[in-house]
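Side project, low priority. Logging it here so it doesn't get lost.
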Amino acid sequence: MNSDAAKSALIEAGKWISHKGWVPATGGNFSIKTHNGFVVTASGHDKGCLSPQDFLELDNKGNILSGQGKPSAETALHLKLYHLVPSTGCVLHTHSVAATVLSRFEKSDVLQINGYEMQKSLSGIACHHTPVSIAIFDNDQNIERLAQQVAQYHQLHPITHAVLIRGHGLYALGTNINETRRHIEGLEFLFACELERIKLESIK
């Protein structure tokens, strides 16, 4: 994908994700792999009102090729995910209530989801009895250190659809932007179901 097409796709995705309420304030950041490297949102922009000027073009090592402003510090995690999962063509980072709360409620380093038909919205999942495992990493303002933790985890437990950052949000990935959007929507539905299940069990 060329950089102009990537920016247009991310602008449309930003409108959709913002309408869902998954990127409040200026939260979140988006990226797409291009012929020359990557296109990523610049820091500090409302993701529901993006324009072509709100993106940076990076090479495969994260060096800025063009664009105004500065990349989010979390760009390093995007680049790490592209490196770890080479089939990845798009990474969308969101800050939904459900993802943020569940990542804090779950005390282990993995959120396990099972028994929902919507699990089949995730690539490679063909049955509601196939567990979905989403790794959770403690939030860290040192993004390079966080990216290394993700890499170490991936060596033993390959990351496929997404990761959660505790108290922060979701990083969803896919082979292209359409698959990544589908993964986000499916996961957000599953997260909402899990929150409701937990609340109902607490009042039994």
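Brief comment: The longest strand covers residues 132-137.
Revisit when time allows.
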